[in-house]
Amino acid sequence: MPGRWLTYCLAALAVLAVADAPPAAARPQHIVSINLCADQLLMRLADPDQIASLSYFSRDASMSNLAEEASAFPRNRGLAEEVMRYKPDMVFAGRYTKRMTVDLLKRIGVDVVELDVPRSIPDVEAQIRRVGEALGQEARAEAMVREMEARLATEDVSASKRPSAIVYEPNGYTVGAGSIINVLISLAGLENLAAEKGLESYSRLPLEKLVALSPDVLVVGDYRDAPAVANEILHHPVLSRMPRPMEIVSVPQRLWMCGGPDIFKAVEVLRQAADKARARQ
């Protein structure tokens, strides 16, 4: 029975996919995004009339830097049948999200562009160029990359006196080497203790270990005050009684959740914390 249902769904979706399909060489005109990071690149690079729908979280101001702009576009929840109602000629998705939807769309021949998680500035720039090429908006993508490169050239990464820092997230997770966040911490003139201790990307860091490391700067997200059990560790009394003074800074998750020009706003927030910590030394 499940097999028959899947066959029926694929057949129905295939009919929708074939209908009104544009010429292969044409710039895509019915683009659907089911990924928050893709949403923001599309709104910056595509013509508005190229966008048919954005992801459900595109209007969430706590997660998207373009929440207000996203209100101009219909939203979707990433279901294959919902996506196909827009008769897309291209769908943008994340590498690790909505796998069932992505697999179904690929099986019926929909052009799906999957975005990976960038781990470096070159990764971010490559992703911007890739999206621009897919949209037929190469010039806009190149202009965005050039703007980022110009901004990067103004960053002073040679600070000889780098305060130490640790990112601490709900459930006691930290961010180490091999992540874009680690790169941004370095650009801000801070030394990521998690990376120095050999931790990779997202790793657990027990509270006792955090206390022992006693960083100059503790970086938390703006979800710190959200009512959730996972956030309770961020309010542990020990964080206010560390062995030595510690600067606590909140970086809105929307600033470094996705690769794009907004990551430099996160660097600015971190640099201010680095300056305060440096003044204490």
TrEMBL record:
SUPFAM superfamilies in the record, alphabetically?
Answer: Helical backbone' metal receptor (SSF53807)
InterPro entries recorded: ABC_Transporter_SBP, ABC_transptr_periplasmic_BD
Keywords of the record = Signal
Q: Which domain of life is it from?
A: Bacteria
State one Pfam family annotation: Peripla_BP_2
Q: Which PROSITE patterns match?
A: FE_B12_PBP
> Carries keyword Hydrolase?
no
Signal sequence bounds? 1-26
BP-aspect Gene Ontology terms: cellular response to iron ion
Q: Start and end of every Fe/B12 periplasmic-binding domain?
A: 30-281
The protein depicted here goes by the name Iron complex transport system substrate-binding protein
**Which species expresses this protein natively?**
Afifella marina DSM 2698
